Amino acid sequence: MALLPTLIIGAMVRPAHGAEYLAALGPVSRSAVTFDDGFLSSGDTKVDLTRFDKPNSVLPGTYRADIKVNKEWRARADISMVDVPGSEIAKPCFDAASLDSYGIDIAKVAEAASKEGRSVKSIPSAERFCGALGDYIPGALADFDAATQSLDITVAQIYTKGDAKGYVDPKYWDEGTNAGAINYNANLYRSTGARGSGKVSGYVGIDASANFGSWHLVHRSSFSWREHQGRDYNTAANFLQHDIPELKSQFYAGDLFTSGRLFDSSNLRGFKLESDDRMLPQSLRGYAPIVRGVAETNARVVIRQRGVLLRELTVAPGPFEITDLFPNGYGSDLEVEIIEADGRSKRFNVPFAATPQSLRAGQSRWEVAAGKVRQHGKKNTPLVAQATYQRGLNNTVTAYGGVTLASGYQAALVGGALNTQVGAFSVDVTGAKTSLMGAPNRVGTSVRLAYSKSLENLGTNFTLAAYRYSTSGYVGLNDLTYLRDTVAEGEPQPFGYGRTRSEFTATVNQRLGEKRGQVFLSGAHRSYWGDQRKQVDFNLGYSNSWKTLSYSLSAQRTLETTSDAASSGSNISPGRPIIPEFSRRETRFMLSASLPLGSENRAPNLDAWLEKSTLAPPNARVGVSGALLDDRQLTYNVSLARGESQTSYSASTQYNGAHGTVFAGYSQGSGYKQVNAGVSGGLVLHGGGHTWAPTLGETPALIHAPGAKGAKVGWGRQSRVDSNGYAVVTNLVPYQLNLVTLDPKGSSLDVELKETSRNIAPRARTVAKIEFQTESGKAILIEGTKSNGEPIPFGAEIYDDQGTNIGVAGQGGQAIIRSADKPSRLTVRWGEQSGDQCHIDLNAAQVSSVIGVDRYQAACM
Length: 861
Hints:
By secondary structure, this protein is mainly beta. Helix content is 5%, strand content 52%. The strands form ten sheets. The protein has a 24-stranded antiparallel β-barrel. Strands 6-5-4-3-8-7 form a six-stranded mixed β-sheet. The longest helix is centred in the middle third of the chain and has 12 residues, at 477-488. The protein starts with 12 loop residues before the first strand and ends with a strand.
């Protein structure tokens, strides 16, 4: 823990070159002021402060520092500071290779100097050079800040390589350390019915990886158990992953999903090599949906995609949002089920489709995959190979295409995207030929149109509007697996299976102006070949706030025709197609409001919610929710609900700790009781042992700060250094710069952090290791007085037995020093003359204790 004395410097500062110069500078510069040591003199003692007159005094030596060019981080490296003739302070040393790696174009510097005839020194091609950087690059400045351990280089833009904003050189991507990483979440439920009979169920989800540097072996599985129904262990995926920086791509082998950018996403067991946009700077990049819903009690939310369990969690009564999903692809809706505490269940789908395919000029996106199709419950799955490619031809046009080959199946896609002033359009056509044994060949096409536009002036955002039509002969890869099983089972008309005929989805958000709120509208329509099923969904909503009250009103309309209703033959007219009646019509109206009960940061919220469905009685809920503790780590929710002629009560609490999350809840209503509890978090296994943490996310990092137990990590959900000196940083952004800080507050006074922040750019899924240097030693508070009774001078330097500078005197002659072994004799020096010093014998000092620190009171002779 850095324990420098609190220096309340009362020294006046005076202009070095006149008030006019300071006014022109604006904020006071380090090089424009000097200290008036007259304000710090103690009696006849005059303190030598000439070292503070220098504009950032740095002693010669080698420093580990962050290098920034025009305020953009470029590297972390050792910087040599040396004394050079004509300079009062040490200057940094450079070489051509380092400047090149920092993004400075050496060739442009030489070319400009030659053309303009500037009198600058030539940058040596192989040797190191030291001194003012402006002597070699016109107008360049290099400023080393010892306090922040950073070297700030300012260079004219014409002398840089023009790297995109946010660019991090791949050689600085951290490939991580050997470690195991486990994300887990576990839930336990007990429900009791009207007759007192109880049922117990549980769930455990695991996302684990073994990381060997930049190679990662991933295992995803879940275990569920129901009393009297047995247990079920489900392995969702096992795969090997490794990134290839040279190709800006990722390699996968095992259970995987194709991306779904062009063709529908498919589950394969095989391999995949695809480009990774995350390796591009953020300014050069070209989606998982948010799941929203409303729970009436402490409910379980189960989210699946194509039958694969993605997430299961408990939510408190009221509206909820789930934003941290890891979907299996971009071509299939999410299936959401809300299971209330009394056993009632609600299901709905969340549309999930790809956005328009536009890319920047010169950028490309590609994928190659091959393997055996995996579908839940299907046995007769084919081998398949698929390749796609997208390329930005210019700022307006993007072209793309792809092919899919499987046993008895071929498909080809061609399309393009166009950016115009009226919006972004994309259109593509897929042709497919299907040959199934015992069935006639089928040939068909599928046309897809998409549109996206944001009208900033009107506050309108068309997030996505897409339409797709497929002819009766068109078969997609995911439909192919079903048809193969149907043929194998002897179905005489396999193509009667309800394949999608047409689909339309749209989402529009409209701001109504300042203080008028916003309106959102979304809709979807689907029809199918082989039967007359149809499904129509509309959502219309309005949200706003008045003072501290936030409220929203929404309506949801669902129209659905099932296969049974379609085949019943209603509305049949000769010579006209079957137009079945909708077998399910439901409209839901929902009103929600939230009001803080106070102005304090931790004031609770009063939440109210009302729902009315045309197929069910109204439901209403009112509750109070809030957070406790300094970091709002402990949250709670209590509510009362009324619906279907019964009243229910719910309460839940959750603690988000440095080592994970613990939660519990209770619900009671007419004829039922339910209790639930669970934990979630992460665990990192490494060479120094094991470290518990909150949920890790895809890319965590391991901090090692020996002896700094209790220090707080400043990134994402805050964690603390444990007794072994380790902490985990969660959810880092791969291939981009992440600033990780360590706050010494809470750690021992006997430990000093040599650095409190680090920049790191980890590779995806790695467990990067960040070493924070610390120095351990007993902290000692010195209160020294000179022989005349005056305190030792403010600003005087303190040296140990070996002549090492270990502190600076503060006000009242106080100083805090740290040493592994308590020195027996200290030297206090405030000038260069032989009389400008005195000595303190610690063995003869009076010793007491102040806030856990030993205080030594002694005379300085």
